[in-house]
Amino acid sequence: MEQLPSSFLSRMEQMLQEEYPAFYKSYEAPRKFGLRVNTNKISVEKFLEISPFSLTPIPWVSNGFFYGEEERPSRHPYYAAGLYYLQEPSAMTPAERLEITPGEYVLDLCAAPGGKATALGAKLQGKGFLVANDISNSRAKALLRNLELFGIRNSMVTNETPGRLAGYFPEFFDKILVDAPCSGEGMFRKDPDVAKTWDETRPEFFGKIQKDIIANAISMLKPGGRLLYSTCTFSPVENEGLISYVLEHFPEMKLLDIAPYEGFAPGYPSLGNNDERLAKCVRIFPHRMDGEGHFLALMEKEGTLTPSSDRPRTKLDKISQKLLEDFFQNVSAPYDFQKMEVRGSNVYYLPDKDTCSLKGIKFLRNGLFLGELKKNRFEPSQPFAMALSGEDYAHVINLSSSDERIARYLKGETLLLSEAETPAQNGWQLVCTDGFPLGWGKAVGSTLKNKYPSGWRQMG
Ligand SMILES: C[S@@+](CC[C@H](N)C(=O)[O-])C[C@H]1O[C@@H](n2cnc3c(N)ncnc32)[C@H](O)[C@@H]1O
């Protein structure tokens, strides 16, 4: 274990008192590795039937599993098929404890690289609207990739400050997750570099940013809507202190109980403004359960929730409609042409949401990028392949996950098909592994031209 900052340790000793030796000792234990099943693509039961990994359930997360350090799930074809996300177990808790009903409008305000946004998107099951925002452009790109890999089709990825975003979405969302930038004290075991860059001023520094973020988040929450605030740090000012600020300045916000787990510890009223309600918050400590460290507070805004609507409202020109109809003859999944929008030559499938002006908003993607209209044809995109299931497209090349050609496909190589695999008709093929889409290929006889985009390829 790296040397931990002494002022951090003495603060933890004061906070934990007789529990402190167990907390300190937990840093000698190896870190825990977690995998979260993408229920947008596969049920937990079905995944367990096909999983090649040795998995143990994470008891407080319905679709989360521990895996051993020796396993390499990021190298398996199922990773490229978007069947799971690799995530530190305690970091799975915030999205798990924010209940989502398909059809709701959901915001993940500090979303990159998407550990929690992918979970929220999966819970929406393709219905409603997810805005996944991050202030950092480079991190927002990684966020978009993860949402695409997960096959989330009803999301918008924005790259805004919370203040500007609030101007577009006043009292708009049913649910909001604020997984705030923080001093990261819960990451010291997982990532020793965080401990090296930490200093005593970090909690105060982040505390100020968090106040601005939460105030804007509250303004975007519908009356009756729910907001979950989380951090991966132990410092009081960023946790109970921040929630005390909310209770004092936003009387319309009340704290709710969080679905219990025996390893959770309650928030400490004495570390905030002594308001007893702070005990409804949850603290995750590494000596009490198999997670690195987190803080959660679930709040509701006074009022009655009004349902979100889902009006489709686009109209395609005749030529685009014809080219899309030709391609979609082979797609059995229900895609509604009234939700397709052409921008330049690109075609997008828009999320189910009410019309509101988004003029000037900085975004990377609104809806699912379906593909491109060329002169006399439609070319499907990689994110579209990831949003389909193996049964959704008429022409499939299905390779076993143990087939050596999968690694070559993911590197962008042309593949040779056996006689039995060669399709009767040339053209677009959905390349799958064990029935789960990886991307597109184009068959010309027994040759499968590779359409896996260069930006998605795996090197080495
Ligand atoms: C804890 S990380 C989010 C992790 C993410 N929720 C996940 O599960 O993968 C916090 C994020 O907040 C972003 N951030 C930093 N300052 C911000 C600000 N002032 N407003 C909004 N987001 C901010 C960072 O770029 C970072 O991606």
UniProtKB/TrEMBL annotation:
Cross-referenced PANTHER family: 28S RRNA (CYTOSINE(4447)-C(5))-METHYLTRANSFERASE-RELATED, NOP2 YEAST -RELATED NOL1/NOP2/FMU SUN DOMAIN-CONTAINING
Name of the protein described by the UniProt record: NOL1/NOP2/sun family putative RNA methylase
Family to which this protein belongs: Belongs to the class I-like SAM-binding methyltransferase superfamily. RsmB/NOP family.
InterPro entries named in the record: Methyltr_RsmF_N (IPR031341), MeTrfase_RsmB-F_NOP2_cat (IPR049560), MeTrfase_RsmB-F_NOP2_dom (IPR001678), Nol1_Nop2_Fmu_2 (IPR027391), Nop2p (IPR011023), RCMT (IPR023267), RsmB/NOL1/NOP2-like_CS (IPR018314), RsmF_methylt_CI (IPR031340)
Record GO terms (molecular function): methyltransferase activity
Active site: 232 (nucleophile)
Domain SAM-dependent MTase RsmB/NOP-type as annotated: residue spans: 23-302
Biological processes per GO annotation: methylation
Transmembrane segments: none
Binding annotation for S-adenosyl-L-methionine: 110-116, 134, 179
High-level lineage: Bacteria, Bacillati, Bacillota, Clostridia, Lachnospirales
Entry keywords, A to Z: Cytoplasm, Methyltransferase, RNA-binding, S-adenosyl-L-methionine, Transferase
